[in-house]
Amino acid sequence: MLSGDIIKTVVSSELIANCRRLIAIINLKIFTSKSALSEFLNELREQKKSIGFVPTMGALHEGHLSLIDIARRQSDVVVCSIFVNPTQFNDPADLEKYPRPVDADIEKLTGANVDVLFLPSVNEMYEPGESWHLDLGYLENVLEGKFRPGHYQGVTQVVKKFFDIVEPDVSFFGQKDFQQVLILRSMVKMLNMPVKLVMCPIKREDDGLALSSRNIHLSSTERHNALALSASLNNAKAHFHEKGLDDLKSEAIAFLSASEGVELDYFEIYDAETLQPASSKDVDSIVALVAAKVGETRLIDNILLK
Ligand code: AMP
Fold first, then answer.
1. What are residue 264's DSSP bridge partners?
2. Is-catalytic flag, 151?
3. How far is 107 from 23, CA to CA, in rounded Å?
């Protein structure tokens, strides 16, 4: 090819890429008001468009983008929300330091061809002094619920509000927050909400670390230490068929307790449908779940063993 042709090709492919970005920016509708969003989505519903919804707290990474990608393939319109929900934080310092890179997030959503971003303020989502809760029973008080009292009340409050506003056909959540998915399934069933929930696989770095918005708080040493979490899960999975559940659990706890810079909250092997301790391998599905503090950063991870 002649050099002029190469330049032409480069220029035109750059031009096409820029045009695509511009079209995507124009196409991303951003709403901060729930009534305006609801009105906009009602029109799309009248046109028989299916609505897929991906709620997030922002600081978007490939994990979030994988949910959006799955939503894109299963729905006509993809709505994403970014809202750092104060009611699900039991530690004010954790809420304060939660990353909020909104401009970078908008760029990522644009690149992912999201149709609608809902970006409400706290006042738009909550009335002053608002306080109500759902009885979530057993699921609310184990694992994350035990270590973060009130967390799932906050999660269900905000997701219930989002579902009422967006009225999605399908909503997409990550397996990364396994207990959250079970709690939301239970809420949807309890309140008879007309939405299907899809649980999407965990996105990991090449070395196994589960992607999380909190990973940016890890120093390079802490990031290295954090690999103990996924290593413990992978080890349990690798030996699932040859060892008993008690041995798998105690070996993981011994490994994590001896891991440099890791302060273990829990490592449990539970029935993946009920989150009751799995007493035998003779159930449909089994999940191993881990939570630990690495430095000041609390991380969670899990793996399906069966
Ligand atoms: P968050 O912004 O942390 O509230 O997460 C928003 C959604 O992204 C939740 O459904 C999470 O489970 C999901 N998510 C977070 N991290 C990952 C990951 N590494 N892989 C897949 N989904 C994820």
1. 292
2. no
3. 13
pTM: 0.92
Tell me, in angstroms, the distance from the centre of ligand 1 to residue 61's CA: 9
Does residue 66 have its Cβ closer than 6 Å to ligand 1?
Answer: yes
pLDDT tens-digit series, residues 66-107: 999 999 999 999 999 999 999 999 899 999 999 999 999 999
- For residues 52 and 168, the answer to whether their CB atoms sit within 8 Å is yes
pLDDT digits (tens, 9 = 90+) for 111-134: 999 999 999 999 999 999 998 999
Report the DSSP pairing between strands 286-294 and 116-118: unpaired
Q: Which atom of ligand 1 is nearest to the CA of 211?
A: 19
Please state, in angstroms and rounded to a whole number, the distance separating the CA atoms of residues 92 and 69.
Answer: 32
> Is the CB of 64 within 6 Å of ligand 1?
yes
- Strand, coil or helix: 88: helix
Question: Is residue 101 a contact partner of residue 56, using CB atoms and an 8 Å limit?
Answer: no
